[in-house]
């Protein structure tokens, strides 16, 4: 549930006395009205569904009317009037301290729709819709939703007051902000929240609820929009701008972008350039498919931080607005999770690549709960059948874009020298060490020393085979 507090939705009501009279004639009899409304009230609450508030005074008058049995009685309640529940009739905020049974009754959507269709709703009054939330296993109707102040990073002065349920996800907050601030579909955005100390915290996991994120009424939520060059405005304010001044007006071919060495970090830059030119992986990040698969709860991952840092780097590299960038933010993120890469010394490129691929895999692993899987043996079955079973078992615990792109199976065959039993297994791999090719012929410098002492030794350079006979 998301609603702009200053723009309530007006309910449809009859426009004239004549229409009201026609509406009354279309009502079911009083006993049927009572049955339809009360049957809905008796069912249990279900998390996520909507219930509506009706002022106790109006509802009691309606009860007297329908129980009296006279459809033309003077006790006719008229349009639903909830004015006594509102603090004001501008923002339509509810009064504090309202109690169910004393001030209002709760009706499910079906019962509410019946009453509105029969009696209508007072002019300009919004329906008071509230969601059922579940807290510590207890379901209850959320009477007072959270009111957040939404602003854009580029305009901190213009704030919109929006109501959300505690059970709404942060993704709904983000989508609502995008709609309210007219953000284009292709633009990337993210959320920050101002905490009680006045500093800003990133709201990384947009799949959790506002209750889990500990957001409260009155908090300022800031939507940040990515720059066209792939950077974030907040990074520039923190002095982490990766774009040199002379490149501000540059526009070149996407992907043709250098990485500046930070000390002896050519080992990292060479690995990043290789990964950046893997089409499947780069398109995955450029098209924002990674956002749907970030795994924030994987104990083997980096809470999505490494994947987000790599995504930022890819978007900057492929924006076409850089001749070169300084990957200091990515370098700091790698050093934060792998202390061996702290500093600016030389390291092994394959070691960095191994850490990066493993980290991206765990940050993007689609498997949330890894199950125990037993290793399978060939047992005489065809290789295709054994390989398919091994791959399916592997993906029951490991399923990500890294697995889709880089993982494979390595066939191992063991033969028992005593009984001759053959065991065939297929083991997953991400890195495969292969030997360098060795030529069957080689060039050697040979000193020829004749048996005749009167002749001088000679140095002869020739291409020979692998045997002494060839030489």
From TrEMBL:
<dbReference type="InterPro" id="IPR018200">
    <property type="entry name" value="USP_CS"/>
</dbReference>
<keyword id="KW-0378">Hydrolase</keyword>
<feature type="region of interest" description="Disordered">
    <location>
        <begin position="1"/>
        <end position="30"/>
    </location>
</feature>
<keyword id="KW-0539">Nucleus</keyword>
<dbReference type="InterPro" id="IPR028135">
    <property type="entry name" value="Ub_USP-typ"/>
</dbReference>
<dbReference type="GO" id="GO:0005737">
    <property type="term" value="C:cytoplasm"/>
</dbReference>
<keyword id="KW-0833">Ubl conjugation pathway</keyword>
<dbReference type="Pfam" id="PF14836">
    <property type="entry name" value="Ubiquitin_3"/>
</dbReference>
<dbReference type="InterPro" id="IPR035927">
    <property type="entry name" value="DUSP-like_sf"/>
</dbReference>
<dbReference type="GO" id="GO:0005634">
    <property type="term" value="C:nucleus"/>
</dbReference>
<dbReference type="GO" id="GO:0004843">
    <property type="term" value="F:cysteine-type deubiquitinase activity"/>
</dbReference>
<dbReference type="InterPro" id="IPR038765">
    <property type="entry name" value="Papain-like_cys_pep_sf"/>
</dbReference>
<feature type="compositionally biased region" description="Basic and acidic residues">
    <location>
        <begin position="17"/>
        <end position="30"/>
    </location>
</feature>
<dbReference type="GO" id="GO:0006508">
    <property type="term" value="P:proteolysis"/>
</dbReference>
<dbReference type="InterPro" id="IPR028889">
    <property type="entry name" value="USP"/>
</dbReference>
<keyword id="KW-0788">Thiol protease</keyword>
<dbReference type="Pfam" id="PF00443">
    <property type="entry name" value="UCH"/>
</dbReference>
<dbReference type="InterPro" id="IPR006615">
    <property type="entry name" value="Pept_C19_DUSP"/>
</dbReference>
<protein>
    <recommendedName>
        <fullName>ubiquitinyl hydrolase 1</fullName>
        <ecNumber>3.4.19.12</ecNumber>
    </recommendedName>
</protein>
<dbReference type="InterPro" id="IPR050185">
    <property type="entry name" value="Ub_carboxyl-term_hydrolase"/>
</dbReference>
<dbReference type="InterPro" id="IPR001394">
    <property type="entry name" value="Peptidase_C19_UCH"/>
</dbReference>
<keyword id="KW-0963">Cytoplasm</keyword>
<keyword id="KW-0645">Protease</keyword>
<feature type="compositionally biased region" description="Low complexity">
    <location>
        <begin position="1"/>
        <end position="16"/>
    </location>
</feature>
<feature type="domain" description="DUSP">
    <location>
        <begin position="18"/>
        <end position="133"/>
    </location>
</feature>
<dbReference type="Pfam" id="PF06337">
    <property type="entry name" value="DUSP"/>
</dbReference>
<dbReference type="GO" id="GO:0016579">
    <property type="term" value="P:protein deubiquitination"/>
</dbReference>
<feature type="domain" description="USP">
    <location>
        <begin position="257"/>
        <end position="471"/>
    </location>
</feature>
């Amino acid at each position: 549930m998301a609603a702009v507090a200053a723009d309530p939705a007006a309910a449809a009501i009859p426009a004239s006395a004549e229409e009201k009279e026609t509406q009354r004639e279309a009502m079911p009899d009083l006993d049927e009205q009572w049955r339809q409304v009360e049957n809905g009230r008796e069912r249990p609450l279900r998390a996520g569904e909507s219930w509506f508030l009706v002022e106790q005074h109006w509802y009691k008058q309606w009860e007297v009317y329908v129980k009296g049995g006279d459809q033309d009685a003077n006790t006719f309640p008229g349009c639903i009037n909830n004015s006594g529940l509102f603090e004001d009739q501008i923002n339509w905020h509810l009064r504090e301290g309202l109690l169910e049974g004393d001030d209002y009754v709760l009706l499910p959507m079906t019962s509410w729709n019946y009453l509105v269709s029969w009696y209508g709703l007072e002019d300009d009054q919004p329906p008071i819709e509230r969601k059922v939330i579940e807290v510590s296993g207890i379901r209850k109707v959320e009477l007072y939703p959270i009111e957040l102040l939404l602003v854009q990073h580029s305009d901190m002065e213009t704030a919109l007051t929006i109501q959300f349920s505690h059970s709404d996800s942060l993704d709904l907050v983000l989508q609502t902000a995008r709609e309210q601030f007219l953000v284009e579909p292709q633009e990337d955005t993210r959320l920050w929240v101002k905490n009680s100390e006045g500093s800003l915290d990133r709201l990384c996991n947009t799949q959790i609820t506002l209750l889990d994120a500990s957001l409260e009424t009155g908090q300022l939520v800031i939507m940040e929009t990515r720059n066209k060059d792939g950077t974030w405005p907040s990074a520039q304010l923190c002095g982490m701008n990766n774009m040199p001044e002379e490149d501000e007006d540059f526009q070149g071919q996407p992907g043709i972008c250098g990485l500046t060495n930070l000390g002896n970090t050519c080992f990292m830059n060479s690995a990043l350039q290789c990964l950046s030119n893997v089409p499947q992986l780069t398109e995955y990040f450029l098209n924002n498919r990674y956002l749907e698969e970030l795994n924030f709860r994987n104990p083997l991952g980096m809470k999505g931080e490494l994947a987000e840092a790599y995504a930022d780097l890819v978007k900057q590299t492929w924006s076409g607005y850089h001749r070169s960038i300084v990957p200091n933010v990515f370098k700091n993120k790698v050093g934060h999770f792998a202390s061996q890469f702290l500093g600016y010394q030389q390291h092994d490129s394959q070691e960095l690549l191994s850490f990066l691929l493993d980290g991206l895999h765990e940050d993007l692993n689609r498997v949330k709960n890894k199950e125990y899987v037993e290793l399978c043996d060939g047992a005489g079955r065809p290789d295709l059948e054994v390989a398919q079973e091994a791959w399916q078992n592997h993906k029951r615990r490991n399923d990500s874009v890294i697995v889709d792109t880089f993982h494979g199976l390595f066939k191992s065959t063991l033969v028992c020298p005593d009984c001759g039993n053959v065991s065939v297994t297929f083991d997953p791999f991400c890195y495969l060490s292969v030997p360098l090719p060795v030529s069957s012929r080689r060039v050697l410098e040979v000193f020829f020393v004749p048996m005749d002492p009167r002749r001088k030794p000679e140095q002869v350079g020739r291409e020979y085979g692998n045997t002494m006979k060839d030489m």
